[in-house]
Specification:
This protein has six helices and no strands. The two termini are 37 Å apart. The chain is 84% helix and 0% strand. It is mainly alpha-helical and 219 residues long. It has a single domain, classed as Phosphate transport system protein phou homolog 2, domain 2 (Methane Monooxygenase Hydroxylase, Chain G, domain 1, Up-down Bundle). Helix 3 runs antiparallel to helix 6.
């Protein structure tokens, strides 16, 4: 059992390293967009291969632990949760790359307007808090993150309506406004992935499945 505890700790450490790279990618993608920094955006795109590699390594590690260690109860929940969180992190990193690709395209044209900074900030905060909730096995924090998803959806819709106004005012704004609309959607999807991670954290901590925001009826 002591050997298995060490295996679990090593799995957690690898997952945290991957999380750190993903969080850095989000931060750099936001900076690249706001500062119109093409070189920074290109570095984020190049670093995505590291996240892909870590996802494959963690997939192999979790499958090995299940096959060889045959974990039970809480340990099994931890391993299966880690297996499900890994692709969510990889998806978030891909979305950061998408932001950077649109940022590079936008940098080739005059600036139209900044995206609502609150949208990017909230998505970044939700991802960070989702990882914290997982590390601490904190279902209270996980539920707080889940509740914030509606606010991100509202900000995304507001951003779209504002950009639509720019498109209607001048057809020359259309291509830039569409790219900014895509960027807003990317941050919304990051928040969605953070929500998915938090649903898994509740399962990890309480053994409850609340996917699709459904809390089981305690009666």
């Amino acid at each position: 059992m002591r050997h298995f505890d060490k295996e679990i700790d090593e799995l957690k450490e690898k997952l945290l390293r991957m999380s750190g790279i993903v969080e850095h990618a989000i931060s750099e993608s936001i900076a690249a967009l706001q500062e119109r920094d093409t070189a920074r955006a290109e570095r984020v795109i190049e670093s995505d291969a590291d996240v892909d590699r870590m996802e494959l390594e963690l997939d192999a590690e979790t499958l090995r632990l299940i096959a060889t260690m045959q974990p039970a109860a809480g340990d099994l929940r931890f391993v299966t949760t880690a297996m499900k969180i890994t692709p969510e992190l990889e998806r978030i990193a891909d979305l950061a790359v998408d932001v950077c690709e649109r940022a590079i395209e936008l940098n080739r044209e005059p600036s139209l307007k900044p995206l609502n900074p609150r949208l990017a900030q909230m998505a970044q905060e939700m991802v960070r808090q989702a990882i914290d909730a997982f590390v601490r096995r904190d279902p209270v924090l996980a539920r707080e993150v889940i509740e914030r998803d509606d606010e991100v959806d509202l900000l995304t819709e507001q951003s779209f309506r504002e950009l639509l106004t720019y498109m209607l005012e001048d057809s020359r704004n259309i291509s830039r406004a569409i790219r900014l609309t895509f960027v807003g959607k990317y941050f919304e999807r990051m928040a969605d992935s953070a929500t998915n991670i938090c649903e898994m954290v509740v399962y990890l901590a309480e053994g409850k499945v609340i996917k699709h925001h459904h809390e089981p009826d305690e009666r």
